[in-house]
Amino acid sequence: MIGASVKRALRRLRPLPPASDSRGGRIVAVIECILNQNARDAGAAMAPAMSWEVVSLCHAHGVGMVQLPCPEIACLGVARTRAPGCSIRAALDTEAGHLRCAELGVQAADRLEAYLRAGCQVLAVLGGNPQSPGCAVHFDGQGLAPAAGIFMGELHAELQRRGLDIPLRGMRDGDRVLLAEDLQWLTRLFADQGATLP
Ligand code: SF4
Questions:
Q1: b/e string for 171-190 if b means 16 or more Cβ within 10 A?
Q2: Which of 2, 38, 61, 72 is deepest in the core (most CB within 10 A)?
Q3: Domain residues for 138?
Q4: What is the CATH number of the domain that holds 48?
């Protein structure tokens, strides 16, 4: 577990990178399909390769992207193999599905914490479309809502357990209007956090 004061102290103590090193020290964690639309279920890909609007915005602001594993593939395989009539959501929303997503959440949190210890800022976790069984991001007054994706719920809980207060936001590339809102949010976040043009 690493608190805010410890993070600040670690940042002060870390050695400066060599002058030849160009890293910006700012990252976001993104769901697998933002960087690879081939991860999506049949019929759900919005582009041949990646969600370019999100990728290009991060690039323009000098923000690196850490790819999170696709929970549907981890639980059900690329083909989303499951019993006839069983939805992907129902297949993930099982004890085994939650356990697997919790494991993925621990691994992802370990990686993000390692970046924090190395002095990077983790600006956000970028999730998926509102209907995504694994990666939707929905909040209510108490935190993540039950409609959120199973993996997002487990990852968020793990980050909270570690005291890592990292904003979560879905990148809703299935709808142009919603995606524009999400890109505006991300642009404001980058500006607020001092992420600059490379
Ligand atoms: S489960 Fe998440 S990472 Fe996998 S395809 Fe759906 S939204 Fe993308």
A1: bbbeeeeebeebbeebeebb
A2: 72
A3: 24-192
A4: 3.40.50
